[in-house]
Amino acid sequence: MKMTKALLATTALTVAAGMASADGHMASEMTIVSWGGAYSNSQQKAYHDPYMEKTGVKVINDESSAEAVAKLRAMNEAGNVTWDVVDVVAADAIRLCDEGLAMEIDPDEHLAAAPDGTSAADDFGDLLVSDCFIPQIVYSTTFGYRTDMVGATAPTSVCAVFDTEAYPGKRSLEKRPINNMEWALICDGVAKDDVYDVLETAEGQQRALDKLGTIKDDVIWWSAGADTPQLLADGEVVMGSTYNGRLFSVIEEQKQPVAMLWDAQVFDLDGWIIPAGLSDERKARALDYIMFATDTQRLADQAKYISYGPARASSAPLVGQHADLGIDMAPHMPTDPNNAKNTFLYNYEFWADYRDDIDAKFQAWLAQ
Amino acid sequence: MAALTPISRTPVSFYVPVVAAAGAVAGLFVGTAQGASLLGVVLGAVLLAAAAFVMTQIIKVESPSRWGLVVILAIVGFFLGGIPAMIIGGAFGWFFGWFSFWLYEGRYRARVAPYLTPGQVLWHFTFRVICGAILVFLITPILVVMPLSFNAEDFFTFTPEMLRFDPEGYSLKHYRDFLTNSDWQNALKNSVQIAPMATLLSVSFGTLAAIGLSQPHVPFRRAIMAILISPMIVPLIISAAGMYFFYSRIGLQGTYIGVVLAHAALGIPFVIITVTATLVGFDNSLTRAAANMGAGPVTTFFRVQMPLILPGVISGGLFAFITSFDEVVVVLFVGSAGQKTLPWQMFTGLREQISPTILAVATILVVVSIALLTVVEVLRRRSERLRGMSPA
Hints:
The structure holds 2 protein chains of 2 kinds. By secondary structure, chain A is of the alpha/beta class. Chain A has 14 helices and 10 strands. Chain A starts with a helix and ends with a helix. The mean pLDDT of chain B is 87. Chain B has 15 helices and no strands. The two termini of chain B are 21 Å apart. Chain B: InterPro entries: MetI-like, MetI-like_sf.
């Protein structure tokens, strides 16, 4: 039976090939978890590639940062942590640190000092918001708008988002209360300094939801950073919130008719954690990677590929030009004085205390 | 095919309103695209009814008047929306020219049985239109993806350049990205390593299980069958979470073998079902005859039973392969980044970075699947012909 023999031969070959590919991994690999997209690309070029060249360690990218907290919890429960270094936002890092899922890192012991000798702790300064968290970049969540869809007067205030008469059309907002509640209160007449005092009360939360309710029919809710750029490029929305680096890519790299509305941009931090419970060998390698990837030059290098501000004070003067476009990156940084005229600081403690409660209310309101 | 029914021309009061109705539907689409649905309906109905009347009653010569309509609608299309609209307009013109004369000359009657009532004739054609609409509905999402994968921009958007058929608007850069990007190449390599192994395990175990369960003397056959089929019925996310914790404990989570085993478990039910179905027609006296002539069970299996149930085994294997190749939920749990498969890469790509590289990959996969299915079908026909099972 020719057919049977052919099948058996294929079988044997497949088994052999499968076995051959199964071993030979693991020895010098590390899994680094990040957000994917342009952001992972910038890390690949600024950190991973030079690190692989220097040490020979193979970096495997996992784009799971969006569900890092849940996955780390599951890994911890299963007693099988497969990640070595994880890129998370500061709020997630604080949660992971509180739950004992991330290991504490002493900045002065494990991080490189600045070139002028300033200690790492001083160089990062206030941005070290958690004992487990090594900040990498300052990013902001802000709005972009279609220049060809806003008519003669381009919006200058974040309240344009709530003004459907002057700027008709859909807008995209993130499908979570953070930032949206604050913007709603500011545009409802609450002073910037009082926003979190108002938001502590049930009436204040209702007030924010009511303000959001005035545009609810015009909102497309996004959950991935890539959604708003796609919606803007399609002309599906007239304006939308997303991370400033994504908007930079839409405007400068993709040349779409989109402009930034920096008003009331919300600053946040993104950085590394190392999961707790790694073997000594993996822990040493993860720490070695972090020491390499967060030194002054490396952080400044990342800004060549994406418009996020480096977290070290000593990196700021080294920020140069975009690697491909050759434009100065400094004016595109959220921290640039021209962009940061009216900024809003994300309040970690407030959201750590009220997140669950307000999340529930927000989701219930969305479902109405 | 010869005409079944003698045909005769139909009265104006019949075919002009019918063309008008069809024109209204076409006008609805064009009008909606231009932002005025109602106007489109009215204009479509009036203009095409008038065109049908002019062609059949005033010009009366079929070929020139039909070509005239194609040209006129193409020009109208060009002024409404450039070259793409011109092509659509020409297609509309061709269709309505044909449709008008088809009705006017009574050709629609020619190929249906003479004894059908008008209502039955109407249903005859309505049925075909519904079937066609369902086909279009099924296949449009796949067809839309293909031109978008040649987009010169990094968005899922038909750019104005693309709609003008400007070569500037098209590029192969997303295909280049797929072929050069190490993430995509790793994912391809993983998929190609995992799916055949998982298929192999599913086919071996599934076939053995099906043969065993078709023996009447096996106790608790129905219960065992239900358990083996359960991965198909239990929600995938539940199996995946269960596998995650179980595999983590025994050190299989995040390994190549773990993913292969998980995918094999998902593929086994398909093999069991298809092989069981072919075994229903299997004559057990053949195995007894083989035994009678001195063949052992293994020889009997490979020489007698296997060739006869091979079609079921192969189609079960194909299902198992597709299951593993398309699977994203289980691999997200059981695999780690080192086992990232193509669907996983597409999933994260869609979520984090809406890049047309995904569409390029999808197009390649569609083409490969079509090629594979064609090959299988050609081989099947060839073997049937060789065995003399088919007159062709």
